[in-house]
Design a protein that fits this description.
five-stranded parallel beta sheet
Length: about 350
């Protein structure tokens, strides 16, 4: 069996991942990444899990890389009126890069994580697949991983529902068995991302809300506090429901539209990557997700001269937000994706 280095956070998913690999006969060690001051608790939890699972644990300080590649990106995207997804950027540039580097340095053949997805090999190509548990599927977050990572990646939780994972952890007597899933950004434990950015970069200036008719209709509290598609907590009363259609960081204005008109027929995506390593054809049909919790929707895709992709939805999709990822699927296979540049028209 192989030597496997597991990304261990101390949570139930990564801990059960270790257990399953050990059951399969692999020689397993854990790696915990300290990526910000908020990760000190993660390091402690990982050590507790490693002790309980009787494996060695390595700690790697990634704060400088995480600051440069993820936190800076996250803050600048919000300043630009976009909606970033830090996990999508962190996975290929920090987390999995560190896993591979540490595996190579310490003589481990493979790497593993507790993500709910799978990898299958066919004719020398490694395909990222959706997890069996559709409610937990995390393939969206992993679409920017390339063949170098996928060819060495094990995902033992691919076919398990979350209740079964918790049951396994409980039988092992792990303290994380009943620990609730984190719903927040890992480096902002309290979930107040706008407050976090303002503490780092200064107060986001107030500006104008623009009504669907083009008139100033109120004052917003700074564009960091809002995202495209938002309907609640706007503090605007126009007699009918409205939502945020677009955010202009140059004029510091937020443009509103009437509820019901938040669906877009098409988007353009940049930063395009192919998960399979295969080039995209000039035109093809597939399914797409415009956010992690969305259901895959049929679309027709066109390769543009710039290398961007034009994605035309079979049915208009609700409020695609600039900066979010659009991920392409062929059934259960992840084809790749990119970052949304255009949304509502």
């Amino acid at each position: 069996m192989s030597k496997v280095l597991v990304a261990l956070s101390g949570g139930v998913d990564s801990s059960v991942c270790v257990h399953l690999l050990k059951e399969q006969g692999h020689e397993v060690a854990g790696l915990v990444l300290c990526m910000s001051p908020a990760h000190q608790d993660t390091v402690a939890a990982a050590q507790e899990a490693a002790d309980a699972l009787e494996i060695p644990l390595f700690v790697k300080d990634m704060q400088e890389a995480f600051e440069q590649r993820v936190i800076s990106y996250f803050m600048e995207e919000y300043k630009a009126g976009r909606t970033p997804n830090p996990c999508v950027v962190c996975n290929p540039t920090v987390k999995f890069r560190a896993l591979l580097e540490e595996a190579d340095a310490r003589g481990y053949d493979l790497i593993a994580t507790g993500h709910y997805a799978s990898v299958r090999e066919q004719d020398g190509v490694f395909y990222l697949m959706r997890g069996e548990s559709r409610q937990r599927d995390q393939s969206y977050m992993l679409y920017r991983l390339g063949q170098e990572v996928l060819s060495r990646l094990l995902l033992p939780l691919a076919e398990l529902p979350k209740p079964q994972v918790r049951e396994i952890a409980g039988k092992l007597g792990l303290g994380c068995a009943d620990k609730p899933d984190s719903q927040e950004i890992c480096f902002i434990p309290d979930g107040n991302y706008a407050g976090y950015i303002e503490a780092r970069l200064g107060r986001s200036p107030k500006g104008e809300f623009i009504s669907p008719e083009g008139e100033v209709c109120g004052e917003h509290q700074g564009i960091l506090h809002y995202t495209v598609g938002q309907r609640k907590r706007l503090g605007i009363a126009l007699g009918k429901p409205v939502f945020i259609k677009s955010i202009d960081p140059v004029s510091n204005r937020i443009y509103l539209a009437w509820g019901g008109s938040e669906y877009a027929p098409a988007v353009e995506i940049s930063g395009v990557c192919s998960t399979t390593g295969k080039p995209f054809p000039s035109q093809f049909d597939c399914q797409v997700k415009i956010r992690s919790v969305a259901q895959p929707a049929p679309a027709r895709v066109f390769l543009l001269p710039s290398g961007n992709l034009q994605v035309e939805f079979a049915s208009p999709q609700r409020a695609p937000a600039k900066g979010q990822s659009l991920v392409l699927y062929d059934g259960d296979v992840v084809l790749g994706g990119g970052f949304i540049e255009t949304g509502l028209v």
